[in-house]
Specification:
The chain is about 45% helix and about 20% strand. The radius of gyration is 28 Å and the shape is rod-shaped.
Length: about 160
């Protein structure tokens, strides 16, 4: 085993760990798979360096196997750890059934009323006047106007 092989293996492991730490610092886990592959190849350099010198085809197969092995381990881990979030774009369909708070008095038959739902302000209408500050339920809507009704009790959501 040569000093070059040991240094190369150690450098690959360190680079893989640095990439992994970068990914942890900026969540999203997009770099998990490449860092796992780099760490796997670096470890092979450290554990079995003769594979890379004895037969170039064997070396290529080992690198391919390490890449696939790293992916097989990293992909399920990525799926488990990756942040999940609600759809970014809100539509009437995604808001139907949700609770909201009236920010501007809602009047029947007009679009002047406003409600805050999931942190967004939407125009609102209803069949009855609803005062500012009331909690409402989104019944549906059309375009950018939500149809809401007052929540009559804590069990209504």
């Amino acid at each position: 085993m040569s000093d070059f092989t040991i240094v190369l293996g150690a450098v690959l492991v360190v680079v893989g760990i640095l990439i992994l730490l970068l990914d942890v610092a900026h969540p999203g886990l997009f770099l998990l798979i490449p860092s796992a592959v780099i760490i796997a190849i670096g470890t092979i350099f450290l554990v079995a360096p003769d594979v890379f010198y004895a037969n170039p085809l064997a070396a290529a197969l080992v690198v391919l196997a390490a890449g696939c092995g790293g992916a097989v381990i990293a992909i399920p881990l990525y799926q488990k750890l990756a942040p999940r979030h609600a759809p970014i774009a809100s539509t009437v369909d995604t808001l139907t059934g949700m609770s909201a708070k009236v920010t501007v008095r809602v009047e029947p038959g007009t679009m002047k009323g406003k409600v805050r739902v999931r942190g967004e302000i939407w125009s609102a209408t209803s069949d009855e006047p609803i005062p500012e500050g009331a909690n409402v339920k989104v019944l549906g809507g059309e375009g950018i106007v939500l149809k809401v009704q007052t929540l009559s009790g804590p069990g209504d959501n």
